[in-house]
Design goal:
CATH class of the largest domain: Alpha Beta
Number of strands: 18
Strand content: 15-25%
CATH architecture of the largest domain: Alpha-Beta Barrel
Mean pLDDT: 95
Structural class: alpha/beta
Distance between the termini: 46 Å
Largest sheet: 8 strands, mixed
Radius of gyration: 22 Å
Helix content: 25-40%
CATH topology of the largest domain: TIM Barrel
């Protein structure tokens, strides 16, 4: 009898998961009450009943995938008074983001194997969440792109001037793209035509004037050029931060290998709102610029039911004193990695946006485009999940955020922040309190295979 009892207990324990999270989780296209079994950081079972060595029951909370942000600027190395990998990843974690991909316009620009390796070392030492990197496409490194591809998760091409970016001329696009096509890595495009921007260049002392020197026309010229240049190929291309109604219409029926991203600031803010706010206009200076309400509503409409594939934060912080100074001298860019998911969770809770669309835009599509096993509550995927209380709407306040920037363009807006978060099955946020330290994050695998 004792032997049978021992064998029965062994069988029960052998079937137990490392961790079971039980509650109302977003599975597939809807919520269902279930148990999520987690082992070695991966989701290994989703079923009605499951045993676990450790169990967490979410009685009044919703369980959702953690977000994947394909577009951040953590300013590290080179601009450490604006942000660091540690402060940026901390902000991301508090915002329910488990994985980010950092743009290469740091100082120095990440345009070589050696500089990318150095950034990976900084990630291993400093990040609280998982991170990947893009390599810059410049006039000088075109012939090395196939080698650089083994050390980055994608390439970034800046067609228009922005913070510490090396503007890439359209005349060299086909030559560079020919090299990139020899790799499997996607190309991310900042779509503002530099010639057009130069044509409109002049002093701008207000948001209305800044809008005029970076007009919709410049975005559309760049989008049109790229679409025509890639029409006979199927290499993955992502248009970053599309900001205008006109460009969105041009991209409405884009092919499946093309992806379109928009930002929370272009979807939720406009020039009139910013001018009327109590904050300095320079807080709302960004590239591409905030546009009129007509364009903002078009971006939001495409988020709700249109051709947009991803929401990306384009988290681009600057120090408070830089943004509080003279408008013309103030650098362009706004922080947003911590507020991105919570802002749209608030819209979903208010039934202004479906949870299905929300999860696709913020979690699944970015992960899928980068071929990651993240962004979904699915067997075989990383156990990156958040828990939210849908009844706990809060007002965004810069003094409660964690970016080094110390300010936000979303001050006073409604949001739903995660109460708890797991990264690869490890609790990293509990009751809104941080549970891990720098070095907890991992570099995303460079083979990018599911």
């Amino acid at each position: 009898m004792k032997k049978l009892l021992r064998e029965g207990l062994w069988r029960k324990r052998s079937m137990a998961h490392d961790l079971v999270i039980e509650g109302k989780a977003f599975i597939g296209q809807d919520f269902q009450t279930c148990c999520i079994g987690i082992d070695n950081g991966k989701i290994t079972a989703i079923k009605k009943i499951a045993e676990g060595d450790k169990r967490i029951t979410c009685s009044h909370q919703l369980i959702l995938p953690a977000a994947v942000d394909c577009h951040v600027h953590f300013r590290d190395p080179g601009f450490l008074r604006k942000e660091t990998i540690t402060t940026g990843s901390t902000a991301a974690l508090y915002g329910g983001v488990s994985c980010v991909f950092d743009m290469p316009n740091t100082k120095p620009v990440a345009d070589s194997v050696q500089l990318l390796k150095e950034k990976y070392k900084r990630i291993q030492q400093s990040s609280l969440i998982d991170m990947g990197l893009y390599g810059a496409v410049t006039e000088k490194n075109i012939e090395e792109l196939t080698t650089i591809a083994d050390f980055c998760h994608g390439f970034k091409m800046f067609l228009g001037e922005t913070t510490n970016a090396l503007t890439f001329p359209l005349s060299l696009f086909q030559r560079a793209f020919e090299q990139i096509r020899k790799t499997t890595k996607p190309l991310y495009i900042h779509a503002e035509d530099s010639t057009c921007l130069q044509h409109h260049i002049k002093q701008a002392n207000t948001l209305e004037e800044y809008l005029l020197i970076r007009p919709v026309e410049c975005e559309c010229i760049a989008v049109k050029f790229i679409l025509e240049a890639i029409q006979n190929v199927t290499h993955p291309i992502h248009f970053c931060h599309i900001s205008s109604k006109d460009a969105l219409l041009m991209l409405k029926n884009h092919p499946s290998h093309v992806s379109v991203g928009v930002t929370p600031h272009h979807a939720l803010l406009n020039v009139s709102y910013a001018v009327a706010s109590l904050q300095p206009q320079s807080y709302y200076k960004m590239n591409p610029p905030l546009r009129t309400r007509q364009h903002q509503l078009a971006v939001l409409a495409h988020i709700m039911n249109g051709s947009v594939d991803m929401i990306e934060s384009d988290h681009a912080p600057h120090a408070l004193d830089e943004k509080q100074g003279d408008f013309q001298k103030a650098p362009a860019g706004v922080p947003g990695v911590e507020t991105m998911y919570p802002l749209f969770l608030s819209l979903a809770v208010q039934k202004k946006l479906s949870f299905s669309r929300l999860i696709s835009l913020l979690c699944r599509n970015s992960a899928s485009f980068l071929r990651l096993s993240k962004g979904n509550i699915q067997v075989g995927f990383d156990a990156d999940v958040i828990m939210i209380d849908p009844k706990q709407q809060v007002t965004i306040s810069s003094d409660r955020l964690h970016s080094k920037a110390g300010w936000t363009p979303f001050e006073g807006m409604s949001a739903v922040f995660p109460k708890k978060m797991f990264l690869r099955g490890k609790c990293v946020l509990d009751d809104s309190e941080l549970q891990v330290s720098p070095g907890n994050g991992m570099c995303v695998s460079l083979d990018n295979s599911l």
